[in-house]
Design a protein that fits this description.
Structural class of chain A: mainly alpha
Strand content of chain A: under 5%
Order of helices and strands of chain A: HHHHHHHHHH
Number of helices of chain A: 10
Largest interface: A-B, 37 and 37 residues
Radius of gyration of chain A: 20 Å
Oligomer: homodimer
Shape of chain A: elongated
DNA sequence: TTATATTTGCTAACAGTGTTAACTTAACCA
DNA sequence: TGGTTAAGTTAACACTGTTAGCAAATATAA
């Protein structure tokens, strides 16, 4: 029975082509301009076929959210594993996080900007959990070598992520004015302050 | 010639009633759900009258952005003036910023979420300048009493704002889980780290 | 092979959105 | 009172997400 398998394969390809067309649209005109009709036009099918592959537009966005989370998670994990010292890990992750945000603006804006994921959803997206796990484990490592081991682990993780997200989102609003090195200095400044207060205190 | 004056006054009142109706809409259903037609319905006029008072929907949002910025600026200035020591000022401002964001979610989301103001616009909105001025002056004060006076002023301001915005926006995504005191601890943690690295270094 | 059932994809519509052209009516002024 | 301007209306345009209903192609069963 190869027919059923072929059908499944074709359906999968169709689904992928929808996402591909959507992604192209996003790359050229941004998230705001993405519409079901434009996707349908691009793949040269009528609108309702898209709804037979995705429940609604949000489901398509969710797909990209997952993709982005997993990409970031993998990237952070890779970078983290290059270092043994917790402080170096936190610094490397911060740099990688920053780079990802600006190299993949579209993903980042969806993940932390448009999506506005409700907490329930955040916990249900396993790819997002993967991402936070990498950061959390680095924080854990840092606390384990810290002089004061009684610090609130979750609080520190939260602070770490907030600093990163704050820096990125404020920088993203600004149009590209300052050179890249200067931007990185801001990141360096904030993160080194955080790491010092975490480990040396 | 009181007629012309009355007309101007009436036009002003009309404009205000549009904003009032819009604000009510936002308070009940959020920014995403605000529409010109709903405003028109609320003030019991037809749609085009709104366009004779505002160029477009964005102009209405801009009005609220300005309002929010000025409210925040005033609030921060008030709080700042209660302290003389720069470190205390920075801490108080951070607390006030945080409180404002959650007490006036609608304003904050517009100012730093939806608006996505281009840099040109940001510089042209005087109310936004007022707001940044308060924070910048507090940073300046802090540097003047710091041991190392050669730190990059703009870099430090940027870091300060980023930490605040990051904390707030990450917290806003989460649904109200943790109690308010715990949230404030995160703020306290991050800001105290920043202040120490700014002044005591 | 033919008849039935199912899947596939389409058109067309519904209920919204921002925005504007064209028209009517009311208010004003000479 | 007649002519001009301003105010406010209806109705449309061009979009958006979403779905009901129908036609054609395909697969299954007799």
């Amino acid at each position: 029975m190869g027919i059923a398998e072929r059908k499944i394969r074709q359906k999968e390809e169709f689904r992928a082509s929808i996402l591909e067309a959507a992604w192209l649209q996003v790359l050229t005109d941004g998230w705001q301009s993405l519409s079901i009709r434009k996707i349908a036009d691009a793949i040269e099918y009528s609108v309702p076929v898209i709804y037979s592959h995705f429940e609604n537009k949000e489901a398509i966005l969710l797909e990209f959210t997952k993709e982005g989370c997993q990409k970031l998670a993998d990237h952070l994990q890779l970078v983290k594993d290059k270092h043994i010292e917790p402080a170096a890990q936190l610094e490397a992750i911060a740099n990688a996080y920053w780079d990802f945000a600006f190299e993949h603006k579209e993903y980042y804006q969806l993940m932390f900007g448009l999506g506005i994921p409700a907490c329930e959803q955040v916990n249900s997206i396993s790819e997002m959990k993967n991402m936070t796990m990498v950061m959390m484990s680095a924080i854990k490592n840092a606390i384990s070598v810290s002089k004061n081991k009684d610090v609130d682990f979750f609080l520190k993780y939260h602070t770490y992520l907030s600093i990163l997200h704050g820096l990125v989102s404020i920088e993203m609003i600004q149009k590209e004015g300052k050179p890249a090195e200067h931007k990185k200095m801001i990141l360096q400044d904030a993160i080194s302050g955080f790491i010092q207060s975490l480990i040396l205190k």
